Predict the structure.
Amino acid sequence: MNRMLFVLVGLLACGGVHAHKPSDSYLNLSLSGQTVEGRWDIALRDLELAVGLDADGNRRITWGEVQRQRDAITSHALSHLQLTMGDQTCTLEADGLQITDHTDGAYAAIGITGRCLQFNPQLTIRYDLLFPRDAQHRGLLRLDRQGRVESAVFSPARRSLAFDLGETRPLRVAWQYLQEGLWHVWIGFDHLLFLAGLLLPIVVRREQGRFVPAENAGTATREVIRIVTSFTLAHFAALSLATLGWIDLPSRWVEAAVALTIVFAAINNIVPVVYRRLWLVAFAFGLIHGAGYASVLSDLGLPAMALALSLFAFNLGVEGAQIAVAAVFLPVAYSLRRHRLYQYGVLIPGSLLVAFVGMVWFIERAANQTLMPW
């Protein structure tokens, strides 16, 4: 069981931990025969890391600073994007640079024009922006082929995507978003911390200053299923409503609220406020977490059918990942639920550690400052 604690500490100490809202760019391309037009929105915070924008070091990027780095921005972006029709590489050029706002901040909007030597229905797009710096970065593609819209996701493991311009494959879109749902949990560190805060007391809870082990495995298993399912349903509901534009909350404060859910879940393990029906807590907090991720799909501008399919597949992946985490954790924790090592060596220090990280994240997100290099 000490190993479980060491793993948790190691994860907290490792680099590359990011906030709930991941690093994304939005690539919108429109194809008409051999002609390519589009726009690529890249977060200014990402461009600052890649090419350096904040010349005076005051942590505020101005339009003047962006203009001065115009050539560096467009050159850097286009060097990480390639379109190929058949075996012919298409030429791409930057066509204007503007600033636009997404739900998580300011983005550079780079206009793109291009032309392929001859039309070929076999199109390949290669994207590798920011992957060497940020393994959680995703490139969200919206491809318009004369009115037929398809979406796709670029990731470090999926840098090249092939398209047959003569057909639409909705199942491929669903499969990609299913994978993104899985990775959303497995590499979304705050999501894992929130799960840890809820799952740690499943097999043993504190009542009146003492530990009470779960009565049997069936009871613990049913509680895990209720928690995981309630969280996913709420996550799906909030993500859907926000993506459809029915609710619109400031990203910064939603992210701060996500951090507070982590703190509450952890502190509740030590000084219980909610003893039973933790699935209701999971549902309420799932609404907040879902709202925190909504901009990923809403900013992409997908048609209704593709959007519905992507939402369903993404949340199916979230549910599957949570079940996998719980399936690994529950048998080990249940077998050790009566040991003081689990009660005082894992539950208490693990919850304190989760609460500490959650509070640091809350301060960072509320104050828009970085306290630790995570």
